[in-house]
Amino acid sequence: xxxxxxxxxxxxxxxxxxxxxxGARRIQSAPMGRYVVVAKSVSSAAPLAVFDVLADIATxxxxxxxxxxxxxxEGEPEPDGLGAVRVYYTWPFNSRExxxxxxxxxxxxxxxxSGFPVRDYNALVTLEPLADHGTKITWxxxxxxxxRGTGWLMRLxxxxxxxxxxxxxxxxxxxxxxEHSAEPKSSAA
Length: 189
Hints:
By secondary structure, the chain is of the alpha+beta class.
């Protein structure tokens, strides 16, 4: 089936439309000049378990492509909440990010402060409970290129990375739940 890519621009946003023979479907919209990457995944773990993996930067080095991850300053609630500054190192980037949304178990957001070749990077991870006991994970990142004109290249690089993060946080949460449920229960004497 042939598709046609349409771009609708107005003063505030550009919307990409992928138009098959049967009609149009909105892909994504962002202010002019901004780049957006959206990744979705599903986990068998509950939203709170996935949220706990997102919030705990100290363990990201154990399951992600990071040499070091740590909390530079605590947020509210302590330690990983709103305002917390987190650092992660993955060659060649030593990036700092600040938590901007901390609403367990449904929304987690952050912005890059330094160390990443983009400007005004903001991300929001939304966790939606599924009817069959699981979580739909939507990871949406928005940014400008730095220097200007390089945003398209970063979008290409970030697509698989953001998709990896969405999948892996769900898998790590499910594994932690399974590990916890497999632990022997101690009996009270």
